[in-house]
């Protein structure tokens, strides 16, 4: 039998039972739609996280004190006996491949002005932080260029903090009290949003030496290094390691984190989560397959006489088997396509309703979903097809 | 028509098509099994966290330095006011609601014995810590009772540290080095396992708090742990702690969290996660429902003559509807039971393999999955059953 | 007991309207034995279905036991079929998954009769058709004549006043036919009104009245 004829014959059988075929396909469609929707959400979230990290640029390298990986986040406890100091930061300044070095101290303190106050994070940094972190200033200017170990009573406010304590008036040139000490506001940052739980807009930036005074610290929480290019990162990491190890009397007691490493880790975690959730949604595909199996089984039983006739007219066993396999593959494939469209449609509606929703369908996932449904059809059609081809033509003809 | 008659009639009709019935039951079963085992996993995770917290002691107040408005619960980094040992002494002396209390100062350092070394968190505390955290000893005793302001050379090792540094040797009475400091091992803590936030309590060591503050040049405590006399007094104790420390620091700059607050936050997150997973798995129930609808439609059209006969014998439309609905919900109900059995078996196997993980499906999930499976039958059976009542009895009887 | 006045029944076949019954007027007395004869498509079965409240006339009135069936709800008509009217079909229409007794119990089940009482009454009905010993058998273990007698037991178990039989012997051999007809006639003699649709002139001859239908109209023949 030529494939085209086979296909036409099968399509005829399927449209003969419109409702039944539609419902069988619908079962698969629901499963595929769920898988498409969930993988798209997973992919969207992954891309969202990537963009969150790369907003600082991919060539940023973080150095934290301590080598303790058990804590998850290094330096949570504010360092070890081997501290990262301003001198360490200074020693990195002129290494090849390094564009900017930013010593960082952070902590929380109360920012007050005109009777209003707010407990927020305070970052002690240098002039270069704005450029290294890609945080542009909206009003005024960032902290001026000066020696990292010099104190200055100057501060730059995050936009949310500025709004909360100045109530819409411009804070430029005004004075605020941070942890009891007076500071002059020289700038307001542009809105940046949340970053892994930290509200970057609800914070203030002051010179690093002043922050160390304020928080009574002798060490840095972190040193951020901006490499000249992404390609220079491995070299820079090596340089930094050898310089700091030498300075710390041969102890490798700090942790260097690159953006690409972080991204890799997050990407892997997201991939696992997406795969797990899709697998759970894939259970519906299994159930849909059982539905197709049931209907195909019924169909073979109903059409016993027809099968007998086809055999009598000269169709081979293999031909009968192919007929039913194709039938169930078509059912599931149609369901897969329908599910893909529904998934994409629902996704479009969802993103329209909730614009913040990370939703991104990868072409690979879409193709995989439809291919999977075809496979489901073939697998669930196998058993009924075997039964159909195994029927004795004489017996089958007698069935009516 | 009486309910038992209805069920017997439906069961009779179903047993006529064994394979078809079996497949339909399997479809629902797979869905219910997925829901049951996933909720069991979620509930297990929740239970695990709850256990972790209760092992911390249930009447625990945790005082930490610093306070941030937007980030909510846990501040870290530098602070403008230290949480000092004097603060700790004041709390112990002046708040009568406290049963016992322990200060906590933390640093990380390499502990050495002979040629072996291991970089671990060093926790500085007092003798009360063992009571507050319900810490049991494997051998020796915990830190001796003495004035918190006095340093000392005693050290208590976590089991893992003891194993890594001493191998099979008994560490009691032996000396370990930490930088220039020497300690004498007085005890080894019983295994406690990985605690919250991935903090491995077996891979840490305890020394007197004053010693840690000197060794790491700490002015501020990391935490103060307070055990309140009774659960009912938690809120009052929390208020008094906040008030006393605000008085001492002249500003409110500490964060006090209760076990319950953290616990309920975790619980809420894990519950939401469980619900989401169960919801995704429940999509397969909808797919199974579509399958059941399909099979029931086939069944109705196959049994036209029967429907006609029933009407001729005086069955009302309501009775015909009820008969087919009973059939559909029997199918799904049986599927629900089978799925419940399979799900519970899967959970049993899991708990046999990982005895530490308290996975068990919550009662609501068991009840709901059975109720939902019957509901699926009623919902998806409704249309086929309605079609049965619309069959013209004359036509139905005339056909053979 | 039965009164038909100018009863019409038309069917929509594609565009055309086909009349199956064209103005039938007929009265049947309680305890009568009527044979409906006529060629295929003459409207015999349609008339029988209308008499059995399975179908409704397009036009005209049908009074059953002095009640106008046209004004009855579907539920009331079901109740009539349940208790006042019995059906016997050419193809028996026994449910193959139920035993003989189970089939006889069906109408009582719909009427909500208690299981205990159902069992005794079914047993009694089977005894009255001479099949008490076959109660536990399934239809496929019974001969054609036995099947039809089970169907008759089922038709009369609720104590109806009217029994409608559509070609009751159409699928039976001579001997079984005679048995079945004798059974029906015995019940008729006990006061049951009997209406039989048949092709078989021998069967028709046994009736008290013979009504011949042709092309939807009727003429009565002298017996």
List the helices and strands and how they pair.
The complex is a heterotrimer of chains A (400), B (400) and C (223).
Chain A lengths: L2 H14 L1 H37 L5 E6 L20 H7 L5 E16 L2 E10 L3 H4 L4 E4 L13 E4 L1 H8 L8 E4 L2 E9 L4 E2 L2 E2 L3 E5 H7 L7 E6 L5 H15 L6 E5 H44 L1 H9 L4 H37 L9 H28 L2 H5 L3
Parallel strand pairs in A: 3-10, 5-7
Antiparallel strand pairs in A: 1-11, 1-12, 2-3, 2-6, 2-11, 4-7, 5-10, 6-7, 8-9
Helix pairs in contact in A: 1-10, 2-8, 2-10, 2-11, 8-10, 8-11, 10-11
Chain B lengths: L2 H13 L2 H38 L4 E6 L12 E2 L5 H10 L3 E16 L2 E10 L3 H4 L4 E4 L13 E4 L1 H8 L8 E4 L2 E9 L15 E4 H7 L7 E6 L5 H16 L4 E5 H44 L1 H9 L4 H37 L9 H28 L2 H6 L2
Parallel strand pairs in B: 4-9, 6-8
Antiparallel strand pairs in B: 1-10, 1-11, 3-4, 3-7, 3-10, 5-8, 6-9, 7-8
Helix pairs in contact in B: 1-10, 2-8, 2-10, 2-11, 8-10, 8-11, 10-11
Chain C lengths: L1 E12 L2 E13 L4 E5 L6 H8 L7 E6 L2 E2 L5 H10 L1 E4 L11 H12 L3 H14 L15 H13 L5 E5 L7 H16 L3 E5 L3 H5 L3 E6 L2 E5 L2
Helix pairs in contact in C: 3-4, 3-5, 4-5, 5-6
Provide a descriptive summary of the structure in words:
The complex is a heterotrimer of chains A (400), B (400) and C (223). With 400 residues, chain A is of the alpha+beta class. Chain A has helices spanning 3-16, 18-54, 86-92, 129-132, 159-166, 208-214, 233-247, 259-302, 304-312, 317-353, 363-390, 393-397; strands spanning 60-65, 98-113, 116-125, 137-140, 154-157, 175-178, 181-189, 194-195, 198-199, 203-207, 222-227, 254-258. Chain B has helices spanning 3-15, 18-55, 85-94, 129-132, 159-166, 209-215, 234-249, 259-302, 304-312, 317-353, 363-390, 393-398, and strands at residues 60-65, 78-79, 98-113, 116-125, 137-140, 154-157, 175-178, 181-189, 205-208, 223-228, 254-258. In chain B, strands 3-4-9-6-8-7 form a six-stranded mixed beta barrel. Chain C has a single domain (31-57, 73-221), classed as P-loop containing nucleotide triphosphate hydrolases (Rossmann fold), CATH 3.40.50. Chain C has a six-stranded mixed sheet with strand order 6-7-8-3-9-10, sandwiched between helices. Chain C starts with a strand and ends with a strand. Helices cover 35% and strands 28% of the residues of chain C. In chain C, helix 4 packs across helix 5. By secondary structure, chain C is of the alpha/beta class. Chains A and B meet through helix 2, strand 2, strand 3, strand 9 and helix 8 of A and helix 2, strand 2, strand 3, strand 4 and helix 8 of B.
